[in-house]
């Protein structure tokens, strides 16, 4: 089989609005003005993702109080979530006009620029925001996300640490910090971050999944499985964790449980081509060739530019003695990816079996050019060279 399965780390913070509306909790609703009650309602609707209703009610307050920073910030956040970025930027600037030291407005403006691809300008706004308000957690989180997006990992680590100094119990931030350490190969620090995230919130499925990724990277497959299982137990809709769990069972050759995990993933997203491809690979390993062929074809229908699936389908077809179809699939994989080493090697094997030795040699050589440390291609090419009496050349490839 070709195309190794990919273990997916999970991020917990993406672009986010940095607006947090603070209402007076001590008063009863009877003691609040109609304006305050309407603004609180808009805020609750925003928090639950009902941005249409939030906009309607916040606009009603805005008509009577267009200079309120809280109203302007909430409108900025609503329009950001609705991806009306120009409107979001307008209300952020209005909030700044009313209160030039309002850190949240600068951070929201940074969110807009980051979403528009202007990361450098976003960074300026985030840095200005935390300069105005040194205990501004969301500002540091947004700054860290922007720095991560331009691969300034040390800067991102520092920004995450600033947020954690303000509030050590931010388990999502700890998990994101762990992801940075993991990407840098600093696995012990990543593990510590995920463990601390779990200590802060023992039901945080993302941290268990990311911890599983660390153990997988270390080669500790059973600890990886344990943590992925914990993640899907905590969150039965956690697609990436089901995929990772299936990958681990596949690697451990516990094929029935790999099938079960992949099927759970497909129940969550039936159109996930890579999962169909991974499931087909398990069927192939089980010797269920017809089911493997059918499932590879599903993967290809879902993702036509999927060279690994074409190559693996070709392998199954060849085992079914459908050599002509297999040859066509290898060729299609190479149209999509001319340096696809497995397809080059496997197509060369067919040419060799057809006594088309010269074509086979060219394909083996192309495979080695694409992947110089490819043992199968070296061995296959050496075998031909030995048969031709070119023993010295053959030895170089063995």
Automatic annotation (TrEMBL):
The protein's name is: Uncharacterized protein
**Transmembrane stretches, by residue range?**
none
Keywords for this entry? TPR repeat
Which spans of this chain does UniProt mark as TPR repeats?
A: 103-136, 137-170, 171-204, 205-238, 239-272, 273-306, 307-340, 341-374
Q: Which PANTHER family match?
A: UDP-N-ACETYLGLUCOSAMINE--PEPTIDE N-ACETYLGLUCOSAMINYLTRANSFERASE 110 KDA SUBUNIT (PTHR44366:SF1)
Query: Is the Protein biosynthesis keyword given for this protein?
Result: no
GO BP terms, alphabetized: protein O-linked glycosylation
Q: Does the keyword NADP apply?
A: no
A GO molecular function annotation here is: protein O-acetylglucosaminyltransferase activity
């Amino acid at each position: 089989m070709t195309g190794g399965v990919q273990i997916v780390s999970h991020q917990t913070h993406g672009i986010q609005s940095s607006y947090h509306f603070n209402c007076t909790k001590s008063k009863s609703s009877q003691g609040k003005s109609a304006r305050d009650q309407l603004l609180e309602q808009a805020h609750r609707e925003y928090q639950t993702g009902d941005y249409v209703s939030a906009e309607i009610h916040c606009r009603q307050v805005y008509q009577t109080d267009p200079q309120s920073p809280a109203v302007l910030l909430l409108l900025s956040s609503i329009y950001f979530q609705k991806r009306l970025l120009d409107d979001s930027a307008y209300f952020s600037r209005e909030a700044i006009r009313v209160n030039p030291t309002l850190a949240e407005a600068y951070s929201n403006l940074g969110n807009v620029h980051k979403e528009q691809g202007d990361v450098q300008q976003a960074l300026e706004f985030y840095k200005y925001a935390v300069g105005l308000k040194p205990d501004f957690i969301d500002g540091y989180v947004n700054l860290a996300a922007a720095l991560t997006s331009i691969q300034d990992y040390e800067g991102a680590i520092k920004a995450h640490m600033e947020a954690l100094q303000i509030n050590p119990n931010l388990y999502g931030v700890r998990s994101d910090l762990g992801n940075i350490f993991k990407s840098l190969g600093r696995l012990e620090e990543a593990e510590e971050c995920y463990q601390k995230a779990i200590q802060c919130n023992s039901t945080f499925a993302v941290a268990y999944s990311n911890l599983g990724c660390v153990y997988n990277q270390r080669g500790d497959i059973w600890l990886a499985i344990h943590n992925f299982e914990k993640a899907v137990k905590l969150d039965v809709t956690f697609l990436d964790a089901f995929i990772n769990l299936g990958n681990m069972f596949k690697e451990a050759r516990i094929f029935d449980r790999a099938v079960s995990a992949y099927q759970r993933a497909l129940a969550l997203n039936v159109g996930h081509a890579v999962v169909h491809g991974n499931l087909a690979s398990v069927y192939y390993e089980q010797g269920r060739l017809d089911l493997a062929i059918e499932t590879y074809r599903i993967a290809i229908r879902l993702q036509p530019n999927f060279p690994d699936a074409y190559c693996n389908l070709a392998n199954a077809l060849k085992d079914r003695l459908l050599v002509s179809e297999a040859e066509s699939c290898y060729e299609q994989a190479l149209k999509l990816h001319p340096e696809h080493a497995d397809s080059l090697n496997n197509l060369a094997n067919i040419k060799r079996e057809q006594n088309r030795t010269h074509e086979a040699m060219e394909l083996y050589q192309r495979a080695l050019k694409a992947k110089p440390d490819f043992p199968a291609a070296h061995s296959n090419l050496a075998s031909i060279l030995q048969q031709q009496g070119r023993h010295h050349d053959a030895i170089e490839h063995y």
